């Protein structure tokens, strides 16, 4: 802001005209237009010294010091400011905000509707039962008859029995229905200890029985602890150290063994219970769980196994239905507010006023009717006020002959 400084100099300090420092300030001001950044700090120091010598006002100093910054930054921000303050741009931004808000509301509503449809349509297709393994059911036999095989008894299998006829969720309905097919899966949660990593393959045997204790189906499947090297176990423990110390995680893994597939449930010979046996007694186990999973078909299969694609399609369908419903609501609201008057009933005499007689008056050709009071006011103004002249009445009077005229004719 060199001109302002020069004016202040001329008014207060005439002797400054011969001062060589003024030429330096002018030269700096001219160079700032080319490249302002190197001269901002030097200009500030020079003007500060100038003020200390000649006692210029602080406003003049600040304006002169930060004018280069303003001239550099403002031209770059000006297009953005003009765009933001433009009414058309603000209208577009408002429309996009409204569109985004409506989209979020429609998506949330569609998601809630699909969730409700999912819970109502899809049956309970999976049931998990806790299994408690028995480690002592053979010990008595070996201790009684073969005490010398006590060490061998440590390697015999562990046993469990699971009742599959218990009603699901404390209801009277059985989990299995007639002609339904299901799978049996056995989950074993074990600690990642050195003893378990040293184990070889072990076998899991399952057998299902009916009410008469007759065997329905059985199978034997292998299981194995997933191998992890010492380095991988060390890195895994190090990465989860915080969660392990706080108890949020445990050093464990789950072994899933698929025992039976595509089992058939018969109402006349239903499944009563199942027995499970693990032939490795020394396997360290946290917990075991038997999962019964129904075989789904059709839409239920897609909703479970292709849940993302199916959910996306249903959410899109529900959003379209919501949009159509909102459009019809808006259209009904619009038709209720604005419509054309086809036929109106005369307020006092009860005669019907034809459509042409109403539309002949441009003032009452189209109008809005919201309440009964407005309708009454319209009819009073149209048919009751004295100022209104009804042409149809004159025509009727002209058409009806006078009584005196009839008497004279007679």
Helix/strand-derived category reads alpha+beta
Could you say which overall geometry the principal axes of the C-alpha atoms support? Answer: flat
Helix proportion of residues, in percent?
A: 40-55%
User: Could you describe the largest sheet, including whether it forms a barrel?
Assistant: 4 strands, antiparallel
- Report the sheet-strand fraction: 15-25%
Average of the residue pLDDT scores = 72
Into how many domains do the coordinates divide? 3
Uncertain runs? 139-154, 340-370, 385-389
Please count the beta strands (DSSP E, at least 2 residues each). Answer: 12
- Total helical elements: 15
Radius of gyration: 47 Å
Trace the largest sheet across and list its strands: 1-8-3-6
| SSE topology string | HHHHHEHEEHEEHHEEEHHEEEHEHHH
Distance between the termini: 112 Å
Q: Can you characterise this structure?
A:
It is found in: Endoplasmic reticulum membrane. InterPro entries: Seipin. The chain crosses the membrane at residues 97-117, 307-332. This protein has helices at 2-12, 21-32, 37-54, 58-85, 87-121, 139-145, 194-197, 230-239, 241-246, 299-305, 307-337, 355-359, 372-384, 391-399, 403-409, and strands at 126-131, 158-163, 181-191, 202-209, 215-223, 252-264, 273-278, 287-294, 338-340, 344-345, 352-353, 366-368. By secondary structure, it is α+β, with helices and mostly antiparallel strands. The chain folds into 3 domains: 2-85; 126-295, no CATH class; 341-409, no CATH class. It is flat.
